[in-house]
Write a structure and sequence with these properties.
Layout lengths: L3 H15 L16 E3 L6 E3 L3 E2 L3 H5 L6 H12 L4 E3 L7 H11 L7 E6 L12 H15 L4 E6 L5 H13 L3 E8 L5 H10 L4 E5 L11 H8 L2 E5 L6 H5 L7 H4 L6 H10 L6 E2 L6 H9 L8 H12 L5
Parallel strand pairs: 3-4, 4-5, 5-6, 6-7, 7-8, 8-9, 9-10
Antiparallel strand pairs: 1-2
Length: about 325
């Protein structure tokens, strides 16, 4: 386990690495990467990954994508593997796949994407042909067969779309399947899906100031042996707004949170149901900082309560 002295040395290395183009240095070589097992298989994943739903998606629309290449290389060079994307994230899936192919990184990544054909018509069902076509485009963009994980995005027409990805899993073209929701009002539907379908993963929102999923969803995931991708651990930018102008408390550095980003990620990763936390970023220096949360220690329950109390005491963003 990472000692306080090791962490301080690595923190200095992070500062130096972030000053380099792309922040590509491996800053955590002397520390232990924290991983969690996928319950259904035992396969280990690093507890920090890369999301592409926000700033990454915006950056992918630009002509110059070198910054995004730096982000993905920084993820991999510092022990990360999980890249979470979706066809609905603008050109993020396409650009991620292209960068990975060009850099020989495709098979080094754990690809998590989604299917989200909008239900239409009087019966509110998704067009199966359209769903299959969208999935095939994802295969083509990613360039990996089997794809590691495909989830039904936002619980959309589960009977149709879950049926398709289950079939593809049985054919060996998808390794894991699941579904997602970041809407509190749809948590009952997510619970039902977790019980009704043989899913391997869910994706759900969870943050130090957004703890509702810990009441029922995360405990149910543990009970049923379902892996969890944690989304929006920063509340988009909400949490950074709440702590603007504040220093990270000294007691947080004792478990290796030297920045607010690491503070927020380590809180989310500390939940025993969390498999991988996937904050989005389009900057290599932020990716490097995020990966710092995957090393050293995670806060215990008492410290998690202390983290909650600190954030709860601040004005809402």
């Amino acid at each position: 386990m990472l000692t306080r002295r090791d962490y301080l040395r690595n923190s200095a290395m992070i500062g130096a690495a972030c000053a380099l183009p792309g922040g590509l240095s491996r800053a955590f070589a002397s520390a232990d990467l924290i991983t969690r097992a996928i319950p259904k298989s035992g396969e280990e994943l690093p507890i920090v990954g890369l999301g592409t739903s926000a700033t990454f998606r915006s950056a992918a629309q630009r002509a110059d994508i070198s910054a995004l290449r730096d982000v993905i290389e920084t993820l991999l060079r510092n022990g990360g593997t999980v890249l979470d994307t979706a066809p609905s994230y603008g050109s993020a899936e396409d650009i991620s796949g292209r960068i990975a192919r060009d850099g020989g990184m495709t098979n080094k990544l754990f690809w998590a994407t989604k299917v989200n054909v909008v239900a239409r018509g009087s019966n509110g069902s998704a067009d199966p042909a359209a769903a299959r076509a969208q999935i095939q485009r994802s295969f083509d963009r990613i360039g990996k067969d089997p794809v590691d994980l495909i989830q039904v995005h936002n619980l959309a027409d589960l009977p149709t779309q879950m049926g398709i990805i289950r079939e593809l899993k049985e054919e060996g073209r998808i390794r894991y399947i699941g579904t997602t929701s970041t809407s509190r009002r749809h948590y009952p539907d997510l619970e039902k899906a977790m019980r009704d379908y043989p899913i391997d993963f869910i994706g759900v929102d969870y943050a130090v100031d957004n703890r509702q999923s810990a009441e029922r969803i995360l405990p149910l995931a543990r009970e049923l042996g379902i892996a969890v991708l944690v989304y929006v651990p920063f509340g988009r930018t909400r949490l950074f707004s709440r702590v603007r102008g504040m220093d990270v408390p000294d007691w947080a550095r004792e478990f290796g949170a030297d920045t607010w980003g690491q503070f927020f990620i380590k809180y989310a990763a500390a939940h025993p149901a969390a498999t991988c936390v996937t904050p989005a970023t389009s900057k290599a220096k932020h990716m490097l900082d995020n990966m710092g949360a995957a090393y050293g220690e995670l806060p215990d329950k008492a410290t998690q309560r202390k983290m909650e109390q600190l954030i709860d005491s601040l004005p809402s963003a």
